[in-house]
Amino acid sequence: MAILETKIKVLVVDDSALIRQLLTEIINSYEDLTVVATAPDPLVARELIKLHNPDVLTLDVEMPKMDGLDFLERLMRLRPMPVLMVSSLTEHGSDVTLRALELGAVDFIAKPKLDIVSGLKSYADLIADKLRMCAKANIRTLAQTAKLPLQRLSLPLSSTEKIIFVGASTGGTEAIKALLMPLPPDMPAIMITQHMPEHFTRTFAERLNTLCQLRVKEAEHRQRVLPGHVYIAPGNAHLEVVRSGANYLTSLSDAPLVNRHRPSVDVLFLSAAKVVGGNAIGVILTGMGKDGAIGMKAMKDSGAVTFAQDEKSCVVFGMPKEAIAIGAVNQVLSLNALPETLIESVGQRINRV
After folding, report:
1. Alpha carbons 64 and 230: distance in angstroms, whole number
2. What is the pTM of this model?
3. Is 310 designated active site?
């Protein structure tokens, strides 16, 4: 008989007794997960962390006695541990949740809807997957990514024909920020698919736009793809690049999920391979799963230069690992090295393997 591995210990922190009960029932229904305790507020949670030493913490944002973000900031400073934010996915909540990711939360998920029974199984599977992923996440990398030194770079040779394509998932919001902030305003166009729900991508793009020299926006359908601009795939819509005469355009669709995602990195990368070919540059960043691997292989086969974030600098070395495994990547680099390497690759070809 196979011996079951040690269960992942979860501490649930939420001011709603109903949410605590529902999350406990969901998590305990999986053989490899167990809720060791629940807390109605961060002050109680602080003592329970000392008592139970959980592997993962689920944390609500708005709670009494201490705000969830204040607690998260103190937790990551004094006792770093994997945190899954349980958020209300609203326009207001998106800004707060993105701030939680900046502070060190690994990922986030919507609060379960108590009045909807249908779809609860898929929600349960999703939260179970996220808890497993959080338990394996590289917490040190999260802190290091937030503290990467900012050095504004210049572009020695501009090429408006090239387009850079980026794919990311878990840990990607901070990785994308670290990738974009050093880049100069005259970079080629950049198209990005980050696994994210509706409401979040617009806020994410707006936050990046205030930090970067490039103009960052949530992509719209049939926009002209211009140098110096970054286009973020909207939540719940696939982003592709298409050609119209001499111009490249964005294209959005509600086609079926690919690799359980919409937007999907594979969809973006496959369109890059088909439409842009050797003028494309591909980057695959931290993330859980295999989305983007097949698309990146197609990009490389079409003549594009491709890069993957290395394991040490990834929060979750899933997507880059899969792309590397199938021979889709020219170079594997640390997150810190990627911006300068991208600039170099814009003006010159890189020896392909």
Report:
1. 39
2. 0.90
3. no
Closest by CA to 63, choosing from 28, 107, 16, is 16
Active site residue 195: yes
169 annotated active-site: yes
Domain boundaries, the chain: 8-137, 153-347
What is the DSSP code string of 42-82? HHHHHHHHHHH--SEEEEESS-SSS-HHHHHHHHHHHS---
Please give the CATH superfamily to which domain 153-347 belongs: Methylesterase CheB, C-terminal domain (3.40.50.180)
Domain 8-137 and domain 153-347 have a common topology: yes
Residue type for 353, please?
V
Catalytic residue among 87, 94, 169, 271: 169
Q: Which of 14, 107, 291, 310 is catalytic?
A: 291
Q: DSSP character for 340?
A: H
pLDDT in tens, 26-43: 999 999 999 999 999 999
**Band of pLDDT at residue 71, cut at 50, 70 and 90:** very high
**Residue of 195, 229, 238, 261 marked catalytic:** 195
**Nearest-angstrom CA–CA distance, 76 and 57:** 12
Q: So what's the pLDDT on residue 164? A: 98
Helix (H, G, I), strand (E, B) or coil at 178: helix
CA distance 223 to 182: 25
3-state helix, strand, coil in the chain (%, to 5): 40, 20, 40
Provide the pLDDT confidence category of residue 121 given band limits of 50, 70 and 90: confident
- CATH for 8-137, options being 3.40.50.300, 3.30.70.100, 3.40.50.2300, 3.50.50.60: 3.40.50.2300
